[in-house]
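tokens incoming
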């Protein structure tokens, strides 16, 4: 079957989905793996470079990259060698090795503001720990977050990633993103619009003395791609410093997309704490909290804030991270990645115009969002949620038949994030634009 066939084979996938529904909730082992446009999850058999093959033999050029975790592509030889080394050492876990020290040294060397490092497994764990650290350090309990920003699956932050379609001035009421979140936690989270200087000043004036931390995605890829305004971010840094509030950059998704040093390097503004995951270990489960020595020393065993775990800093993931950082630190890595991104993003934006499809692409570095139905630059959640979900789904229905993998969670109030990897060649991207031309042509 050719990659641009009118339909994709799915006999084995459909049968496997039927089996899965008998033993898992909704037929998936994680909710985000269900694709509402496809009507089932993808079942992939293997990946190599920027391509994936499913169990029915269909080949796809991938633009989801494991929700951003596989930024170096699939089957990268340096990452495979690192994992193989870990296996040969006996699959050590719950213990420190020299490689843990080397990884921490490397992170301190390349990440602005990183004087100390503590590892965890997932982005959710990292943001939960960062907030705990901030509360232990300040003795305060409340946190401030921004409308539409996502910081993981724990109860402390699962508010207002999908605020209902209403306009709120300055303060946004708490809307839990999940059932099962205790009402008592509502009072601990203050939410305001992103990139709004007046709302920010008001929030610090009213709540600054109660805030342990302000947490944000400095580049909100979970809203497609919405960067902080540089002047606004500088104001945030100054106001938090003046109020004694810990500033947390959540780089679980944004980290390493735009620069080796993350958003602190990209914007030239350094937070107190930063959370990392996804691209850190090139697809292996590893996360980290980095920050100043003064604040990080609230952690046990020297401090009283607890952060540990059996699988924390698993050797395979640590070695994969060391290998990934070596690859990303190589001369020309980001120049090449950004040049390919610029070419591809310009090509997609030209397709919107060519086919008369309202919308545009916003992208920074290796990640981008598609804002169907919105012509102007999007700067906050209230604008992002105006995207045309129906038109977006029309596009997504054309991707798989054209041999393109664009995963979508569904039921999102803003566009999904997609991305390129270092494994995408110029030829891959040119081929993808030809396939996207077919997909855009079929939308109207």
């Amino acid at each position: 079957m050719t990659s641009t066939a009118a339909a994709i084979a799915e006999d084995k996938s459909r049968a496997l989905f039927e089996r899965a529904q008998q033993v898992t909730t909704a037929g998936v082992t994680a909710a985000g793996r269900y694709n509402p446009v496809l009507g089932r999850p993808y079942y992939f058999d293997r990946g190599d470079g920027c391509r994936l093959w499913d169990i029915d033999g269909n080949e796809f050029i991938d633009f989801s990259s494991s929700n951003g975790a596989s930024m170096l592509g699939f089957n990268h030889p340096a990452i495979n060698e690192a994992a193989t080394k870990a296996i040969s050492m006996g699959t050590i876990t719950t213990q420190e090795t020299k490689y843990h020290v080397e990884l921490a040294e490397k992170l301190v060397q390349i990440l602005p503001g990183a004087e100390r490092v503590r590892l965890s497994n997932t982005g959710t764990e990292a943001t939960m720990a960062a907030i705990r650290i901030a509360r232990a350090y300040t003795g305060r309990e409340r946190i401030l977050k921004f409308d539409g920003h996502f910081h993981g699956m724990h109860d402390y932050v699962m508010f207002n990633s999908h605020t209902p379609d209403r306009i709120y001035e300055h303060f946004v009421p708490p809307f839990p993103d999940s059932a099962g979140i205790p009402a008592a936690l509502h009072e601990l989270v203050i939410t305001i619009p992103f990139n709004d200087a007046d709302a920010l000043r008001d929030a610090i004036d009213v709540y600054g003395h109660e805030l342990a931390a302000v947490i944000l995605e400095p580049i909100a890829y979970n809203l497609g791609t919405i960067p902080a305004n540089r002047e606004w971010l500088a104001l945030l840094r100054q106001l938090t410093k003046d109020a004694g509030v810990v500033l947390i950059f959540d780089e679980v998704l944004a980290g390493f997309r735009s620069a080796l040093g993350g958003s602190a390097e990209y914007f030239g503004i350094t937070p107190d704490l930063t959370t990392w995951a996804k691209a850190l270990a090139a697809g292996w489960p590893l996360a980290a909290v980095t920050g100043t020595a003064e604040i990080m020393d609230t952690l046990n065993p020297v401090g009283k804030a607890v952060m540990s775990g059996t699988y924390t800093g698993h050797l395979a993931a640590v070695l994969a991270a060391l290998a990934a950082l070596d690859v990303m630190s190589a001369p020309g890595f980001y120049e090449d990645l950004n040049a390919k991104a610029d070419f591809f993003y310009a090509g997609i934006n030209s397709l919107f115009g060519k086919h008369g499809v309202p919308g545009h692409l916003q992208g920074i570095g290796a990640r981008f969002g598609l804002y169907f139905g919105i012509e102007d630059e999007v700067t906050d959640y209230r604008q992002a949620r105006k995207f045309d979900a129906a038109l977006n789904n029309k596009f997504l229905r054309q991707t798989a038949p054209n041999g393109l993998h664009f995963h979508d969670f569904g039921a999102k109030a803003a566009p999904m994030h997609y991305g390129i990897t270092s494994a995408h060649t110029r030829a891959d991207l040119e081929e993808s634009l030809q396939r996207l031309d077919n997909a855009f042509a079929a939308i109207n």
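note: Residues 333-354 form the longest helix (22 residues).
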